[in-house]
Structures are given as structure tokens and as C-alpha cells.
Amino acid sequence: MDWTDLQEAWGWFAEHVLIVLPYALFALDVVLRIAAVIVVPRNRRPQSAFAWLLAIMVLPIVGFPLYLMLGQAQLPRKRREKQRVVNRLMRARSMDIPDSDLDEDSPSWLQSAVALNRELGAYPLTGGNSADLEIDYQTSLDRMAEDVRGARETVHVLFYAAGLDDWTQNFFDAVGEAADRGVKVRCLYDHFGSFKYWGSYRRMIRFLDAHDVEHYSMMPIKPFRDGAFQRPDLRNHRKLVVVDGEVGWMGSQNLIAAHYNKKKLIRAGVRWQETMVRLQGPIVSEMNLLFGIDWFFESDEFITEDQLVKPHPEADGPYECQLAPSGPGFVLENNLLLFNQLFYSASKRIVAVSPYFVPDESMLYALITAAKRGVEIELFVSEKGDQFLVSHAQRSYYTTLLQAGVRIQMYREPAILHAKHITVDDSVTVIGSSNMDIRSFILDMESSLMVGGSDFMVRMHEIEDVYRSRSRELTLEEWEARPWYVKIVDNTCRLASSIV
Predict the structure, then answer these.
(1) Is 328 contained in some domain?
(2) Per the domain annotation, does 329 fall within a domain?
(3) Which PANTHER family match (predicted)?
(4) In whole angstroms, how far apart are CA 415 and each of 259, 381, 385, 395?
């Protein structure tokens, strides 16, 4: 075909475009709908598949490209290759380390939960640990800073959101002092989770560079780094601090001001309420291993096991602890399976604290089943939500839960209850970074800690009492009386939240 033919073809198209275009769009519409029915349901949970199909059927030309970009919760290729290497190493290590013995008064089903965690994450149950809880935001930052100031060899810091501001200045000063005296300091922070708070993020980067602290952003948003589009909303949501492999912190709190430096929140007096746990004993080495894995992903530096795992010959703490990591790097939803296992095992009481409660069907049925067989269930959520979609989506579940007998405690505004933990039967606690929502189950890398023992539960119940005193109980009558248009928004957001 020569230039003249191309000109004639273009001329014909320009002349007939208004006639041809509707037929072309109709054909494209049909092709995309048929392709969606074939492709979308493959290896996908029904509620997610239905949500994607609905979006594509309503507007195929927009919905299908969005599905191609956001429809697969899969890590970039190079990271998947690294994950396979790490999984093999962790499995091999796990075979040589026996689980610690549970207390004699532990329920029989707790051993099943330990076995499940070990199969999913390859982390053993460790004994001889001590643990302390902290719920005051500034105090936890200052206590972490105090531990960093006592560091002799290493300081490992990993947070989803991190920034240097008035609240975190003391912590970063401690990090800088440790680095200046020769302590090896490594810092990780989620790219999106920290970058969006630009002012404090920029100050943090400058500070770390000034003190020669090695640092990396986790899951950097580089959509085409492997030569194919990568989903940008896969994030590392963990929160960890490990000092010398001997002292560790984990929980729900980020390394940033309690109002996240948002002017609107500052004016409204909004503060995030968190729960953090300080640990000593063999479990800290397991936390250090988890940090080492994330460090390997971002830096390509493989920190050897003997550098991360420290002997604890005199560990005589009263608690058995087991780390339960989860995220898109694992085959299954580790945190969801653990929660469901514990809910089905409960015989007396379940208390769940989660700022974002958007369960999948399996978790919803686990809770309803527990409630119907007489288990007392209490769910703590925020009265004020900070994310429109998630807040309305989770509210769409309240009617079903209240009708089943679940008590819902709404933490009074203007505070945002951001803590995340569950307690079951005065026997076991799970605390960490994981919300009880679909994002935490599928898209985010999370770290949870299972702690056995009634002594630890005493302190957990004290914290629950504090949260209960700051909350009001939602009744079914009050909830059903909300305006009809609010119900429509809730149910629409519930459908949208299933698109993962």
C-alpha cells in the first residue's frame, strides 16, 4: 500500500466516521463484556468477581481497563522471585525449630491456631517473652526513642507512614544520635504511605541523609519497572522497631503526628488512638527476621540469620508469642484465616478492635455463627471515619451484626480509634497492624502477633475498658432509624469496596 492508498483510506474514514464509529463502539462493547465474563471470575472470590463484572457491564470502556490495571493483587515479578527464595529459606529454618510448649491451662484449640500460623507463615511459637502495652500516642514514641538511645549494635525501623515533625522529633533525634555513635541504623517506610505527607516526609529524608542512615522507600510506585503495569496500591502496612535484636515494638501506630499533620484535622481536634506492644525475648528475633525480609526486598542486601537472630538464654518472660505475617507475597490470606480460626474456636467471648471493618463473607459468617451459639461478641469501631468509602462500607454490615447479637461500641469523635487487636476467651490475643477489611487481607503486607496467656489478657481487658469508657454503644433501633439516602450510600460503598 503506497502513500496515495493511505490518503484515500483516511479520506474515506473521515467521510464515514460518524457512520462507522457507533458500530465500532458497539462491537468493542460486546467484546469487552464477553471477555470480562471469561477472564474476571478466574481464581477470584465471588463477591469481588461480581463487583468487577458489575463495573465492567455498566461502563465497559472504562471498567475493563481499570480491571487490567487493578484487578490482580500480585506483586511485581522481581519481588515474587525474591519472595519464593525467602519462603524456601523460612520453611527450611522452621523445620529445625520446634514450637515452645503452651501453658497447661491453654485451650486445646490454641494449639491448632499455632499449627495454622506456622504452616502459613513459617514462624514458630516462642516462649519466655515479656510484653508491655502502651496506648498513649506521644508516650509510645518517647519510649521507642528511649530504647533506641540504648542501642549498642543495630536499630531497625519500619513504618507504613513516617515523617519528621514535632511529635516524632525526639524519636528521630535518638535515631540520629545512634547512627552518629556507630550503631548500624536501617530505616524502611512505605512510599505512598509516607510520601503523601510531603512536608514531614521531606524533613525525614533530609535528616536521615544528614546522619548517613541507610533508608529505602517500600513498594516504590514505579508502575512499569518490570516491563509491565504493576498495581500501585499494594502497600507495606507494617509497623516495627527492633533494637539490638533484644527489644521490639509493633502494633497499629505510625511514625508521624497523631493528627497526621493535616490542617483540617488539627482544627477539628482529631487525634488517632493507637495500641502498641513492647516485647523482649525470643520473639524479637522473629520480628528482626521479618524486618530483614522486607529489607532484602528493597535494598537487595541479604542480612544473614546470625545477624538477625540473637540468643536469649535468660529469657524467662511469661508469654508464648508467635508472629503471623500476611500480604500478597503469601499464597493465602494468612491474617483472615487466623481470625476465622479463632472466631470459630471461641466459646465465651470475642472482643475485636478495628478502625476499618469490611469483612469478607467467611469472616462475617464466622462472627454470626459465634454469636448465634452464645459467644458474647463486642466490636469497637470509630464513631467518626477518616475514609469515606471504607467508613460507609463497614456501616453497611452493622444491621446484620446487631441483629445477630453483636454489641457495637463506637469510639467517640473527634478521636479516631486506629488500634487493631482481638481477644478470645481470656486465652489469646492477636495484635498488630492488620485491619479486619479486604484491603488488609489481600493488598497490604501486615504483621500480627498472637500472644497466649491469661496474664496478658488482664492488661488487654484494662485497655478495652478504657476504650469502652470512651465509646457509646450503638443500638439496632438507632441504626435502623438513619435516613434512607444514607443506607443507599452505605450499600453502594459496600459493593465498591469488594473491587479488589
Answers:
(1) no
(2) no
(3) CARDIOLIPIN SYNTHASE, PHOSPHOLIPASE D
(4) 9, 11, 9, 18
Alpha-carbon distance of 105 to 204, in angstroms, equals 47
326 belongs to a structural domain: no
Q: What is the pLDDT of residues 205-233, one digit of tens each?
A: 999 999 999 999 998 887 766 655 677 88
Contact 450, 430 (CB under 8 A): yes
Residues 355-411 have pLDDT tens digits of 999 998 899 999 999 999 999 999 999 998 888 888 999 999 999 999 999 999 999
**Rounded Cα gap, residues 498 and 443, in angstroms:** 12
Q: Do 33 and 12 fall into the same domain?
A: yes
d(CA 138, CA 273): 11
Q: Could you check whether the bond before residue 107 is cis, i.e. omega within 30 degrees of 0?
A: no
Nearest CA among 212, 205, 287, 274 for reference residue 243: 287
- The number of folded domains in the chain is 3
Compute the residue count for the chain: 500
Cell numbers describing residue 256: 508521624
In a domain, 327, yes or no: no
Phi, psi of 132 (to 5 degrees): -135, 145
Cα separation, 83 vs 93, in Å, equals 15
> Look-up: residue for cell 464513631?
383
Buried b (16+ CB within 10 A) or exposed e, 188-218: bbbbbbbbebeebbebbbebbeebebebbbb
Look up the pTM and report it.
0.90
Neighbours of 222 (CB within 10 A): 11
Contact 394, 453 (CB under 8 A): no
The range of the structural domain enclosing residue 33 comes to 3-70
Same domain, 245 and 359: no
- Burial (Cβ within 10 Å: 0-12, 13-18, ≥19) of residue 386: middle
In whole angstroms, give the CA distance from residue 233 to residue 212: 30
Q: What is the mean pLDDT of residues 98-120?
A: 88
